[in-house]
Design brief:
elongated, eight-stranded antiparallel β-barrel
Length: about 230
């Protein structure tokens, strides 16, 4: 990648979790769990030097999950009885803006294959709704108690400094496919609890330093390179 090139790109990731895929199904009986997470990240960058680029990345993340019901049986050796819960739902939407620096290292003479490292400083804000549904049940006097649903709303803000190494392959001279994975991050999180009217009822914050492979942060994308001048 040469100095002066403009890079347009998009990374997308999708994950789905269902009770049929759980390795703990023998532990969680009658489990009805479903959830999905979708991330879309368009970005634009400019190569300020050969194989070195600065850019902006925009992001949208949607999380939707539900837990119909589950009962936990820990066996006779652990005398805690049977624990059951259910009727829990999660809906989350968040938006982010990040500044990144990416550097490439070619691994073949023609420059079609390469490794890259990326450092990104981003800010993310979003809203989450956590709902709890109590099913209809029969009272002691024989009457039926109606099902009720309560919702807890929250607003989050996060700043993150992350490191993503990856592999780049030029499919065509100006089209590059990439795959990268999160390998460490430093982040600050702030959460505010809201009531039905939108008033703040509580808040907390925390910071995290992670120096490990994050398999949930895998990015697969395609980059389009635009040239101002003919490549040498």
């Amino acid at each position: 990648a040469y100095k002066g090139e403009v890079m347009l790109g998009l990374t997308v990731s999708y994950g789905n979790l269902a009770s049929d895929d759980s390795d703990y199904y023998l532990l969680l009986d009658q489990l009805k769990l479903n959830g999905s997470i979708i991330q879309v990240n368009p970005f634009i960058g400019c190569f300020v030097a050969n194989n070195h680029a600065l850019g902006l990345r925009f992001g949208y993340t949607h999380i939707d999950g539900s837990l119909g019901n589950a009962s936990i049986n820990l066996g006779e050796s652990i005398d805690l009885g049977d624990l059951s819960f259910g009727g829990v739902g999660l809906l989350s939407n968040s938006y982010s803006l990040g500044l990144f620096y990416r550097s490439y290292v070619p691994i073949d003479k023609k420059g079609r294959f390469g490794l890259f490292s990326e450092i990104e400083l981003s800010a993310q804000t979003g809203k989450q709704a956590l709902s709890f549904t109590k099913k209809a049940a029969e009272n002691e006097d024989g009457t039926i108690a109606e099902a009720t649903t309560s919702t807890s709303n929250s607003k989050t803000f996060r700043t993150k400094l992350g490191f993503h190494p990856g592999l780049a392959v030029y499919i065509f001279p100006n089209v590059c496919a990439t795959i990268s994975v999160g390998l460490g991050s430093l982040q600050y999180n702030s959460t505010k609890q809201l009531d039905a009217a939108g008033n703040v009822t509580g808040s907390h914050w925390d910071s995290q330093l992670r120096a490990r492979l994050n398999i949930t942060d895998i990015r697969i994308g395609v980059n389009l390179h635009l040239w101002n001048n003919k490549k040498p």
